[in-house]
């Protein structure tokens, strides 16, 4: 608890706490809506690759396998890891019946187990190799491809089964708030020479333009997905 209070007092200004609250609320709302719809419609609501990568990331950084993290963020990751476990459960419960390719349907559970193991190991080794001790760049890389895969998934599910419209909005809001939070908070974690101010004292490049690219493009892709989703809803309503 003392470490948690220290983190709140020394890492987070009141403004950052508000932005962080919006980020956590947006992503949590997206999880809740997706899980509720998936159980109701007997499907899974995220691209499979995104599910595997998400749960792998949450596992690695929720339990601090790479480096000790900021307690407030670690506990937030643990909350989302619990949500990811439920999402994975929907995959194993309903995912096989959703598949249209005979080979994928036959080998679905083996594919899922292999995907989960490969994602967890790949994320761990990536973080170690690139000294991504908090998983921040990696989380936005995963989010970037997740947003693109949502559009691919939208075209592959003409009935929109398991894909709630509200979750698209809350994901975009949570991601945009997360981008603002990281834009402000992440540079504060390094001293003037680019050394992390807490263990493991790694050195990081002072050039954040790759992160800025991800901060800007992910919400734009999410908005495109919202627009396409809305258009698909209209065409389904007209056909009905």
How is this structure best described in words?
By secondary structure, the chain is mainly alpha-helical. The protein is built from nine helices and no strands. It has helices at 2-11, 14-41, 48-62, 71-98, 102-106, 108-129, 136-156, 165-185, 209-239. Helix 3 packs antiparallel against helix 4 (71-98), helix 3 packs antiparallel against helix 7 (136-156) and helix 7 packs parallel to helix 9. The radius of gyration is 19 Å and the shape is globular. The model has no long low-confidence stretch (mean pLDDT 90).
Instruction: Give the overall form.
Output: globular
Order of helices and strands: HHHHHHHHH
Count every helix, treating DSSP H or I runs of 4 or more residues as helices.
Answer: 9
Question: What percentage of the residues does DSSP assign to strands (E)?
Answer: under 5%
User: How many structural domains can be distinguished in the coordinates?
Assistant: 1
Strand-pairing-aware structural class: mainly alpha
Strand count, sense and barrel status of the largest sheet are:
none
Helical amount among residues, as a percent range? Answer: over 70%
Radius of gyration: 19 Å
Please, what is the oligomeric state?
single chain
According to DSSP, the number of beta strands is: 0
Which stretches are low in confidence, meaning pLDDT under 50 for 5 or more residues running?
none
Mean pLDDT across every amino acid position: 90
Give the N-to-C terminal Cα separation: 55 Å
């Amino acid at each position: 608890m003392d470490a948690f209070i220290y983190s709140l007092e020394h890492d987070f200004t009141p403004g950052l706490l508000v932005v962080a609250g919006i980020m956590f609320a947006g992503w949590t709302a997206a999880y809740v809506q997706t899980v509720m719809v998936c159980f109701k419609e007997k499907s899974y609501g995220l691209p499979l690759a995104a599910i595997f990568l998400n749960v792998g990331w949450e596992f690695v950084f929720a339990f601090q396998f790479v480096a000790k993290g900021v307690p407030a963020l670690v506990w937030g990751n643990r909350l989302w890891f619990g949500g990811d476990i439920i999402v994975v459960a929907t995959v194993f419960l309903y995912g096989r019946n959703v598949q249209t390719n005979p080979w994928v349907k036959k080998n679905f559970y083996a594919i899922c187990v292999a995907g989960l193991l490969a994602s967890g190991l790949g994320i761990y080794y990536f973080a170690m190799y690139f000294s991504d001790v908090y998983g921040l760049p990696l989380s936005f890389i995963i989010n970037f491809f997740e947003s693109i895969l949502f559009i691919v998934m939208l075209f592959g599910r003409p009935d929109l089964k398991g894909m709630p419209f509200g979750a698209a909005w809350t994901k975009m809001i949570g991601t945009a708030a997360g981008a603002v939070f990281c834009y402000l908070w992440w540079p504060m974690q390094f001293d003037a020479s680019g050394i992390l101010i807490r263990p493991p004292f790694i050195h990081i490049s002072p050039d954040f333009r790759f992160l800025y690219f991800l901060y800007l493009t992910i919400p734009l892709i999410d908005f495109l997905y919202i627009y396409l989703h809305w258009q698909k809803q209209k065409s389904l309503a007209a056909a009905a």
